[in-house]
Structure formats: C-alpha cells, structure tokens
Specification:
This protein has about 140 residues and is α+β, with helices and mostly antiparallel strands. It is built from one helix and eight strands; from the N terminus they run αββββββββ. It has a single domain, classed as Immunoglobulin-like.
Amino acid sequence: MHRPVPVLNWLAILAAVLGANTMNLAHAAHFCTGSPARLHDGGTTAKYLKIVVSSVPRTYIPYQGRNSPWCCSTRRSIGGHSSNKLLVAPKLGKVRLAGYRICYRSDKVGKDRFVLIRRWKNWINNRWNQGKLIYEIEVVPKPF
C-alpha cells in the first residue's frame, strides 16, 4: 500500500531548496553592493559601491552568471535610454559602459570614484534628459 508523504515533509523539502538558493544569492552579494540612485533631469546624484578587490577568488554560484570580479548595475528608464558618457575615469580600477549596463572592477584596495553623464528619453514629454552620476567606491581586501 502506497502512503502519500505528508504535506509538512514537502514543505520542509521546499524550504530547504529555497533556503539553499537564498544562501547562494546572499553569498554573491558579499563581493559587491551598492546604493540606489535616482537621477533627475539636470541633476547630480551619487551612487555608493562597496566591492571586493578583483584578486580575491569568487565562489561559483550555479545559475547566477559567471564568476566575475566586475560589479555591475543596470540603469533603467521608462522612456528609453541613449548613452552613458564617462567624464572622470576611476584611478584604481576600470569601468565599462554598455547601454544600460555600468560595470566596475579594481585591482587595488582603497577609495575610488568615477563620474558619468547619462542621457535618457522622458516618456511624458518625449524630450531628452541629462544628469550627472557620481560613483563613490570603496574597494576592500576581503568579502564582507
């Protein structure tokens, strides 16, 4: 005679699977974290990043992308996006600008910063907006 597994056992299994995935996501966040930044037309906004120096090995996390020392953020705009233009380059690290994506990495520990101009289309009035985004970065020697 076949007896069904009680619902509580299935819930425990589900919690274990989801819990393991949550731990992986939390572990990934220990190499790179950043503050949100809202940019308005003509405005200047600061975004703060904390990243682990690129020489520290990253743990591979299945289904979470590649094991990369880059800290990336994706900018969003309802109306559309045109460009990011680098005004001030970082001194300790490197920055990559590709469409909506902004990525930074550093080979040295310390404080760094870069500044860019971002242009985007305003969906309400169909005009191009522009603002300055300042990235203030703390590069640390070990995961946090």
